[in-house]
Amino acid sequence: MNLTKVLLESRLVAIVRGISREAAVTAGQGMTEGGIRLMEVTLNTPNAHQIIADWRERHEGQAYVGAGTVLNVSMAKEAVSAGAQFLVSPNVDLSVIEYAVEHGVEIWPGAMTPTEIVAAHEAGARAVKLFPMASLGIPYLREIKAPLDHIPLLATGGATLENIASYYEAGAAAVGLGSALLPKEALNSGDSAQIAERARAFVKAATTRTDQ
């Protein structure tokens, strides 16, 4: 399955970091019910590999499960062994990209500068994560997209329901979502319905084209 195609169609990646295995059950249920198709758990989350395996078992056919914060080839191998269907990193590590390409695993490495973005794309990444968007800002995305319009950018950091439209308008092919998608109170209380409602709102925002 070409998950970059799924990324470009759904225009969203949900990112889960630092939650318990129990809370991940609530998160996964709510996100899939709300229509999220790509769910990522960062590898610096306790029990990340178990969460990946749990999500694969629970949500097969509903959503694709990936690993984030993949910093080296060893981490990539362990994530794939746990069931990760795509890999995301905060940086450009050519050896990690090479491993993913050789093994047919989608990878969206993180980059900030034009040099990093182009290097990641030429190494085989079909989409590149622009990070950290919360610090770089919408004007940076718009400016960098102009000469690099052939490279799909996954803008990650700072997106909310109130500003996500501006990410797409500035040229983001997709947006990475974190805390804005998963209210702490919903996770703590096991309220998957609240998360599903929030997910549906983001899915609607992502599929309402304002950038064309």
From TrEMBL:
Chain ranges passing through the membrane: none
Coiled coil stretches, renumbered: none
InterPro entries, alphabetized? Aldlse_KDPG_KHG (IPR000887), Aldolase_TIM (IPR013785)
**A molecular function GO annotation:** lyase activity
Q: Which Pfam families match?
A: Aldolase (PF01081)
The signal peptide stretch is none
SUPFAM superfamilies tied to this protein: Aldolase
How is the subunit organization of this protein annotated in UniProt? Homotrimer.
Q: Which family does it belong to?
A: Belongs to the KHG/KDPG aldolase family.
The protein's name is 2-dehydro-3-deoxyphosphogluconate aldolase / (4S)-4-hydroxy-2-oxoglutarate aldolase
